Amino acid sequence: MEAHRMTGSRLTSAWIPLLILLLDYVLMDVVTGMQWEHLSVRYGLWYQPPKTRSEAEDKGYTRENDICQMNNYHGFLYVHPHDDKFRVIFDYNYKLSGIQTMIPGNLHGHDTKNDTVRYPTKEVVPPILLFQDDGFGPQKFIVTAYFKHPSLICGPATTHVHTGRGLYIQTGYRVEKQYERIPLEARHLSDDWKTGTCLPSMGRHYFKNLSKDLQCEKLYPVFLMYNDEGQLGGFGLLFQGVPPSDPSRAPFKWFRHSVQFYPAIFDLTMLPPCMFNPEFHVFGYRVYLRDEHAMTCPRVQLPGISEDNAEGGAVRGGSKNEEVTFRPLNPALEPSRNSTSRPKPPKYIKPNTNVILDDVMKGAGSRNSASKNFLPISSIYFASLLVSLSPLANIYYVSMATRLTQKLSHLALR
């Protein structure tokens, strides 16, 4: 009997390390699922920013700092040699953790009286912050966004914390305390965020304090994008004035909108009179955290047709109610909101008149990581049963519990 117990104990103990590795892998898989599955940037054209240090170096980006906790931001900043408007931020373990935008301090905009003013105005500082530089030269300003809690960026203990599935806008130089956390669901937005227009492949836009009574010098430089299910899918930067000319070798360019192109971003009924000044211009770009084809808009209901008929074959056989778009749909897509298969992207036709409204270059698609979050309950039960059988399991259990607690604490901070 004693020999049988010893044999069983040895057998169980031999399984323990393998089970710990299994649970560690499963937990890491869940953590991985908590990161943004897609990252792309749209100026006038599509651009795929680097997501790893090696990819950044291959694209010619250079590191700007050797200290992680800087006065202006946290993380290691990488800048493209031919264009410094868009920068990527990697954490202590060189995982992509944020982006930063830089604008010159010699821009000019307009106030609510249509008078010319220097930009950025004090009303939009923060989130626009003066870039504190010990060197000489013209002033520069930055807007910094992080994809995970700022306190996790410069900690060496965050080895297993991945890119992150959050959005934090820095609002001061005390990086770990001065930020605005953007809700992942639109229903949690404060009343300051006003619902704007919804555009296919861009989603529903939200602008802070935008109304007909807004003073133009207070136009908030960050806007948000949610899909038709209310899930955060991206954000954008929006500045006043006319930006300096882009270098010829710059990998991307700003979008630039004057009054006639406002429908590409704004609901015209929300805008104050000062924004219709012919000299008023805005520029910026969009950052997609989800695939752009997931940024859908609710379909407009045709008069006299119920939703039941729309779901059936009556409408499909005749004229369909396509989404309003600035781009021709070629070919038309079937409704795919509840479909399990991913639709193929339409081929957009680039018009000769406007590159900004019709962006035709698209980066590589992202992988769908949703299927990796499945964990059979029987695996956990089996692992717990074997661990409980061995008197030697306490050592392994304590080690595993410690690692589990650390990882869950990192997740709680996001």
Q: Could you please describe the fold and organization of this structure?
A:
- Keywords: Membrane, Signal, Transmembrane, Transmembrane helix.
- The protein has about 425 residues and is α+β, with helices and mostly antiparallel strands.
- It is globular, with a radius of gyration of 25 Å.
- The relative contact order is 0.15.
- The protein is about 20% helix and about 20% strand.
- It has a domain of about 260 residues.
- It contains six helices and 18 strands.
- The strands form three sheets. Strands 1, 2, 13, 14, 15, 16, 17 and 18 form an eight-stranded antiparallel β-sheet that branches. Strands 3, 4, 5, 6, 9, 10, 11 and 12 form an eight-stranded antiparallel β-sheet that branches. A two-stranded antiparallel sheet has the order 7-8.
* Record field, number of beta strands: 18
Give the SSE string: HEEHEEEEEEEEEEEEEEEEHHHH
Radius of gyration: 25 Å
Structural class: alpha+beta
Classify the helix fraction into a percent range: 10-25%
Major sheet: size, sense and barrel closure? 8 strands, antiparallel
Which band does the percent of strand residues land in?
Answer: 15-25%
Distance between the termini: 52 Å
Average pLDDT reading: 72
What form results from the Cα inertia axes? globular
Count of helical stretches: 6
Question: Low-confidence parts lasting 5 or more residues at pLDDT below 50?
Answer: 10-33, 305-395
